[in-house]
Amino acid sequence: MTSPRFKLYRGKCMRIAMMIAVAAVAMACSKKETKTPAVPEPAEVQMEKTEPGPKIQSEEVTYTAGDTTLKGYIAWDANKKGPRPGVLVVHEWWGHSDYVRKRADMLAELGYTALALDMYGEGRLADHPDDAMKFMNETISNMDVATERFRAAYDLLKEHGTTNPNDIAAIGYCFGGAVVLHMARFGVDLDGVVSFHGNLATQAPAKKGAVKAKVLVLHGAEDPMVPPEQVEAFKKEMEAAEVDYTFIAYPGAKHAFTNEAATETGKKFGMAIEYNEEADEKSWEEMTKFLAALYPPE
Question: What predicted TM-score, i.e. pTM, was given to this entire model?
Fold first, then answer.
């Protein structure tokens, strides 16, 4: 005979078993009704084709003007297709240096073929102001010789395989700035010239109608080597000759304001030259806009 306590225990077990069974059925039903979310097909990614960045190639070049051997440096972007404008770069009075080569590379990055030329011969580079003055005076004492050396570089750049021979401009620093201004005065076939802290004086003022190039002068307002009276004389000369020119002066900037080595060099030799980062950057921007206006992107 079964005891009441056992019956009660067996009843509880049966109820628990029934609850487990119901739960199992519910779970089974739930699994059947639940659908695994469909994994969406990966969206087709639209990749934009981008042009490769600049790949600057360069080479040292040797050329001649008369009996003088000249040594320059030419740079271009190998990733850029087709001919592009050429820009001559004329060095400071120190001579053909790494600084002017750096500027040629920077122009190549902008899409130009740039030739850092040699005005002294044999790539001579001074390490003392006395030597720099000697080299400079030897060159400018005979402007026919100076022009011949400039034109030799001009012809070399035009003949380079990446250059559009119909699009040639020139920029110059200090002594080089004076050189490109002189070449514009002499009527050399240049689309534009840019002078960075260059001397503005001349013994052969521009004649009306002779200057073919547009002119951009980037000047240090505190440059003691180019005093205010020289600036005013230059402006009058340009206006009298009806030259298309722009003159920009940077407050606080002294001579050689684009060269990072200028401050140390000035202290070493007691020269009134000094680097000015703001003027350097702004003047390069002005030159960039000037060249872009001469040669609008196709």
Answer: 0.83
